[in-house]
Amino acid sequence: MAEVFSDFDRDDFMRERHVRFFLRCLHVLPERYAPYETSRLTIVFFALSGLDVLDALDVVDKPSLIEWIYSLQVLPTDDKSNLSRCGFRGSSHIGVPYNTSKGPGVLHSYDSGHVAMTYTGLACLIILGDDLSRVNKDACLIGLKALQLEDGSFYAVPEGSENDMRFVYCAACICYMLDDWSGMDRQKAIDYIRRSTSYDSGIGQGAGLESHGGSTFCAVASLCMMGKLQDVLSERELKRIRRWCIFRQQSGFHGRPNKPVDTCYSFWVGATLELLDVFQYSNFEKNRNYILSTQDRLVGGFGKWPDSHPDPLHTYFGICGLSLIGEPDLRKMHPALNISDRAFDFLQQLHAVWRDDST
User: Fold this and answer.
1) In terms of Cα–Cα distance, which of 181, 184, 68 is closest to 124?
2) Torsion over CA of 36, 41, 43 and 46, rounded to 10 degrees?
3) What is the mean predicted confidence (pLDDT) over 258-265?
4) Contacts of 208-215 spanning 24+ positions with Cβ under 8 A
């Protein structure tokens, strides 16, 4: 095996192999990912947004991908009886007919949008340069609002599911991208975030739960998108959250005290520190070295840990972590919305057009 690596500097970022890794993820779902078929749209998001950060979107068939994403939109039926179920599904796993039109949906007893799929579906369309003109925004927002619980959290699907900070974040992203906050009661969501702050100043998935790097990101990013971070959290509270996040670094970052370092937290915690204006106080060199230690030098991609199998999620967030620390030839990230600055600028242009059209 030493001979295989003899021509490479182990510090090299192997961009072209990661491009090919993401392209394979778009073309076929490997057997080990088969259980995630119902969430295929999230895997497409990791691949597309990853290619965007790598500045390699030219390798994908954008029109075909846009049509496939629209085929996953759960549209209102003629009688509007399924409005509370609208949004985007994760794949065509339940056999609903392929439909990319604005026309009425097909009522299926198990067909509904999923809050994370709606977020990633909209994000993918923005990354691909679509103007969202075929998104039924009203239906998406009605479907989203139906998922919010009295405590401010969100279900993933109308049938009921876990309800935690992940889905508060997805809901905030959907409202932000559609430039319409009617899909959620912001005050209830803010109250949920406040109740989820733990004794150590990190933020958990819900009230009384352990502080976690992922849920801390979701809470802070949601407040940033609402424009409420400084209003909701005092400077003293923000300093304590900053301290909790800074302490998550060993070499790379971990998500909880006494847990091993994990590639994806280089984004979750790194982006939180960036949103809180203190990322520069972390150790970029140690972080970079850890991320690159999880790089698969044969097939591309990044794993959770060194010598673990690469997967789309850790590959994407490893590359995002490198983008945050300024790795050359990578696009900059918009840390709150978790897309590239290029895609975010396009979204801002769409918002400007929509606002002009409404006046």
Assistant:
1) 68
2) -150
3) 97
4) 210/256, 211/244, 211/256, 212/255, 212/256, 213/245, 213/248, 213/253, 213/254, 213/255, 213/256, 213/265, 213/268, 213/269, 213/272, 214/165, 214/166, 214/255, 214/265, 214/268, 215/164, 215/165, 215/166
List pLDDT tens digits, range 205-220. 999 999 999 999 999 9
Q: What is the largest CA-CA distance in the chain?
A: 66
Q: Give the pLDDT confidence score for residue 112 in this predicted structure.
A: 95
Is residue 321 within a helix (H) or strand (E), and if so which, with residue range? helix 312-324
Q: Is the pTM of this model over 0.90?
A: yes
Q: What is the DSSP letter of 333?
A: E
Gap between the Cα atoms of 96 and 91, Å rounded: 10
- Comparing CA positions, the residue from 169, 244, 240, 248 lying closest to residue 205 is 169
Query: Distance between CA atoms of 85 and 328, rounded to whole angstroms?
Result: 43
- Beta-bridge mates of residue 129: none
